Amino acid sequence: HSSSGTEELLKRAKQKNDTGQNKEEMMEGRLKQAIHNQSLSLVYQPQVDLHKEKVIGVEALLRWNDEVLGCVAPLTFIPVAEKTGLIKDIGLWVLEEACRQASLWKKEGLPVRMSVNISAVQCRDREFIQQLGEIIRKTDMNPWLLSLEITESFLLSQLQNGQEVLEGIKELGVHLSIDDFGTGYSTLSYLKNFPVDSLKIDQSFIRDVLIKEKDEVIVTSVIKLARNMNVKVVAEGVESSEVLTFLKENDCDEVQGYLYCKPLPPHEVTPFLLDGSARQILS
Ligand code: C2E
Ligand code: MG
Ligand code: MG
Ligand code: MG
């Protein structure tokens, strides 16, 4: 009896090992040490203004290269960080690092708008506005050069004090952008009620915009909507010159994507920030 009990225990332990649960616990443990280990870093992807034909901004994207786990993709570890609350410290680290880099570029004569992704969990409490203000002061960041990218799920989960948080961000002079526009629940009411400066059309609509008629209708309609609401519109995931031409013809304001540049470490982005560096590809 007892030997079969032991066998059962061993079997269960193995099963647990085979499930994702242990992996997630492991990831959580490693993630806890990530800031201290200096295994987090930021890469930056240029954002090109189609009217001015130059790079006017960069988006900071988090990378995690763990000693044990290797490189883990944000889409894998950010949900774990959100679930465990670790995203609060990680998010503050990202904000400070991105602001520091933007300040540095500005001092080098390369002022550039810095976009930072913000998770819903990160700013659930009111402290966030105060922390944001502190980071801006500490890093000597121009708040009007900072843009926070939030997702529709953020807006949705924040129905009660969402307005307050977003207004606090605006009071600091920081820009607000809706990320992955069109992929969550209806966003139209948020465009109406919240002080949004720009929206980013999700790459899932951009990818096949020339192949799928419905995507084309959605993209052109969203651009018109944004224009009429006096909100800037950015297309994400532009990978081909044909799509770029389409977006230019349809009066999109800004693009980012592999066609122009992959997310890169800061020293590799600097050349792209020099005036006129976007002309080659756009003309
Ligand atoms: P996102 O904010 O929508 O970022 C765009 C994602 O698309 C990035 O993936 C970027 O590398 C990728 N991308 C850019 N251009 C192209 C393209 O032309 N084609 C394709 N196929 N992909 C392109 P990444 O870096 O893996 O980040 C994934 C998501 O993870 C981000 O989506 C964002 O939601 C989240 N994330 C990344 N960094 C942070 C962060 O610091 N904080 C938070 N809260 N979330 C972050
Ligand atoms: Mg983003
Ligand atoms: Mg996006
Ligand atoms: Mg996305």
From TrEMBL:
Residues 24-277 form the EAL domain. GO terms for molecular function: cyclic-guanylate-specific phosphodiesterase activity. This is EAL domain-containing protein. The chain holds residues 224 to 506 of 506 of the full protein.
